[in-house]
Design brief:
alpha+beta
């Protein structure tokens, strides 16, 4: 009975993706571009002091562009797919119970209006808008739009990944070069999370602090970065990018070897990589099977635990 139920759900998800996206994929893209054109780009490098606020601390910023772009997308995407709900970063900040919609029966739009807000605030073009459509915990489609670069990456489950209409293939890392791994920025990691990431500071790996999560996933899908290692699980940061990487031929794993669940409860950190072999290697290093290397961000030996 459980197997029959899962088969039915999978069939329903495929029909939703095929029927809705067949009619409205271009409309979704148009609304994402419109939100960026109207609410984000006019404020890029023009933010007034009163348009920037802190949330949990000085490294967790929100701007009027975040709030207004999310409001635009919430209204527009909800109208395109009646009966759907929205889980947006700013809506969840205002009311954490909104996140529970990811476990419900309705189709869910997962929105990060400005992924890389810190970069946006500092006038750096390395930010993007992330949108994913999910149903019962399965990501069906995603859009990654970098408005300052006018780049749009899209993915539909089972139909591949594309950047501005050109197919994306992540490929495999060159065997004789260190793996470039984008790692959770130290400003956004606890001491416990830093210790969990120490396994990457070893021979054959070149870890660096990540920027916008969405753009790091795009870099993996393009074969420009070998893997990511993230220590937080907010769905709006990961849903769009994980599907993009998978559809480009990449793979993702948590520390237990299971796929990342957008509904939460994942063992952390987790990785997304250009291919399955790289994902297994990075996950193995994260699981603590490798000895300590240099301390993150210093080049010095890791302190004794």
């Amino acid at each position: 009975m459980i197997e029959e139920t899962e088969t039915w759900r999978s069939s329903l998800d495929e029909r939703l993706a095929e029927e809705f996206l067949g009619r409205h994929a271009a409309d979704v893209e148009e609304e994402i571009r419109k939100a960026a054109a109207v609410e984000i780009m006019p404020r890029f490098r023009r933010l007034a002091e009163h348009e920037v606020d802190q949330k949990s601390g000085p490294h967790d910023l929100v701007t009027d562009a975040d709030r207004l772009a999310e409001r635009h997308l919430t209204d527009a995407l909800g109208a395109l797919l009646p009966g759907s709900v929205v889980v947006g970063e700013e809506a969840v900040h205002a009311n954490p119970l909104v996140y529970e919609a990811l476990q419900g029966e309705a189709p869910v739009w997962i929105i990060d209006p400005v992924d890389g807000t810190r970069q946006f605030v500092h006038g750096d073009p390395g930010f993007c808008t992330l949108v994913a459509l999910a149903h019962r915990g399965v990501v069906l489609a995603s859009w990654t739009y970098a408005p300052a670069r006018d780049q749009l990456a899209t993915a539909v489950r089972g139909q591949g990944a594309f950047l501005d209409g050109t197919p994306l293939r992540s490929g495999a890392p060159e065997p004789d070069r260190p793996l470039e791994v984008a790692v959770s920025h130290p400003d956004f990691t606890t001491d416990e999370q830093k210790r969990a990431l120490l396994g990457l500071w070893t021979d054959g790996v070149a870890p660096r602090s990540c920027g916008s999560a969405g753009l790091e996933y795009l870099a993996v899908a393009r074969g420009e970065v070998d893997a990511t290692a993230f220590s937080w699980e907010a769905a709006w940061d990961h849903a769009a990018g994980l599907l993009l990487v998978e559809e480009a031929g990449g793979a993702q794993l948590t520390l237990t070897g299971d796929p990342f669940r957008i509904t939460g409860g994942n063992p952390l950190p987790f990785t997304a990589a250009r291919d399955a072999a790289t994902a297994r290697k990075v996950a193995g290093l994260l699981s603590g099977t490798a000895g300590p290397g240099p301390h993150p961000g210093t080049g010095d030996p890791a302190p004794a635990s």
